[in-house]
Amino acid sequence: MSVLVLVLAGPMQSWGSSSRHAFRDTDPHPTKSAVIGMLGSATGLARTDVSGLAELAALTFAVRTDQPGTRLRDFHTTHAPSGKAMPLSNRFYLADAVFTAALAGPAPLLERLHRALLNPAHPLFLGRRSCPPARPPAHSLHPEATDPVTVLETLPWQAADWYQHRHPRHRMRLHHDTDPANPAARLHADQPADFTPGHRRHHARPVATRTLPPPPAAGERPGPLDFFDALDGLA
Questions:
Q1: Residues ≥6 apart with Cβ < 8 Å to 215
Q2: What is the C-alpha to C-alpha distance for residues 225 and 77, in angstroms, rounded to an integer?
Q3: Closest CA to 158 of 36, 69, 53, 76
Q4: pLDDT at 19
Q5: What is the mean pLDDT of the chain?
């Protein structure tokens, strides 16, 4: 087993899990379906390759909100080449956000994915083709790790320097795959099953969410117990 870490940062991101037609919303954090799609693009996986997708979708997934960004609405107008006006739409994005994602699975597969991210077969984007990453998504490969949550709990904060300076007590949210029997589990409809155009399918997956303690300031001594930190520890 290994854990692969990606940092997803860019001027614009959009992670829709239930958007349809003229209303294209974004979730507040990356979906598993979109991150698996990014890995598929990196490896050159065909959209119709269901068995290849199943291998990637079986990876255990977790994502951390390092810098939540600002929700942005784009009132979208387009015209066909003939000049005919197309339906108006509302599209939503996250501006200036940073997330850290981690996936756990077989070491040979994650080594192959890490190499593919460094030299992708197709262009990578953050949820939509109009949202290129601001930096290469590949961050690190942890050959001795087995749990993406443990890696994200200890990995340094990836927010921009200006954000860390302005929000030194920011508490990162962590969303991760969990057992369906976990009382804290909530179903997210972003487990990819088929990317074939016209036949896209997703299943629901159980996800648990917790909030991490704020990063300690340099030279800071442990302070009094925070009430909400104590509640998180009971989740």
A1: 157, 168, 170
A2: 52
A3: 69
A4: 64
A5: 90
Count of H-run helices and E-run strands, the chain: 6, 9
Residue 159 to residues 69, 71, 129, Cα–Cα distance (Å): 10, 17, 23
**Are 1 and 146 spatial neighbours (Cβ–Cβ below 8 Å)?**
yes
Q: In angstroms, rounded to a whole number, what is the distance separating the alpha carbons of residues 192 and 4?
A: 19
Residue 222's pLDDT band, with cuts at 50, 70 and 90, is: very low
pLDDT at 219: 52
Are 155 and 6 within 8 A, CB to CB? Answer: no
Beta bridge partners of 177: 207
- The CA distances from residue 86 to 82, 146, 192, in Å, are 11, 48, 29
Contact 154, 212 (CB under 8 A): no
Tell me the CA end-to-end span of the chain in Å, nearest whole number.
Answer: 26
Query: CA–CA separation, 117 vs 227, rounded Å?
Result: 41
Q: Any idea what DSSP says for residue 29? A: S
* pTM to 2 decimal places: 0.87
DSSP 63: E
23 neighbors 90 (Cβ within 8 angstroms): yes
